[in-house]
Design a protein that fits this description.
mainly beta, 6-stranded mixed sheet, 0% helix
Length: 114
């Protein structure tokens, strides 16, 4: 059974940085196009960044130039480096495939104070 465990969230001031981690348990991680999502208070979950199995990346306009997605297929892990954080980045962050194939994990809370 596929499971995701997100970690690395926290509370920071605007302009700060955080690095999120996604631990995947299951098979064929290296073949999966993966993504980070977030759900801000009172809003729907949205895709933040995606990375293909060939390491091609794509970002939501709101985070371009500030966030960097990466993956380590040998460790079955994915990361999101978040720099220059803004109050609007406050959300619970989740990982999944880029088509949200599997059950969602608990997510990790990111709170940015202005």
């Amino acid at each position: 059974q596929v499971q995701f465990v997100e970690s690395g969230g926290g509370s920071v001031h605007a302009g700060g940085s955080l690095r999120l981690s996604c631990d995947y348990s299951g098979f064929f991680f290296s073949r999966l196009p993966m993504a980070w999502y977030r759900r801000a208070p009172g809003k729907q979950r949205t895709l933040v960044a995606r990375i293909t199995r060939d390491m091609n990346t794509d970002y939501a306009d709101s985070v371009k130039g500030r966030f960097t997605i990466s993956r380590d297929n040998t460790k079955k892990m994915m990361f999101l480096q978040m720099n220059d954080l803004k109050a609007d980045d406050t959300a619970v962050y989740y990982c999944n495939t880029d088509s949200a194939t599997f059950t969602w994990g608990q997510g990790t809370q990111v709170t940015v104070s202005s």
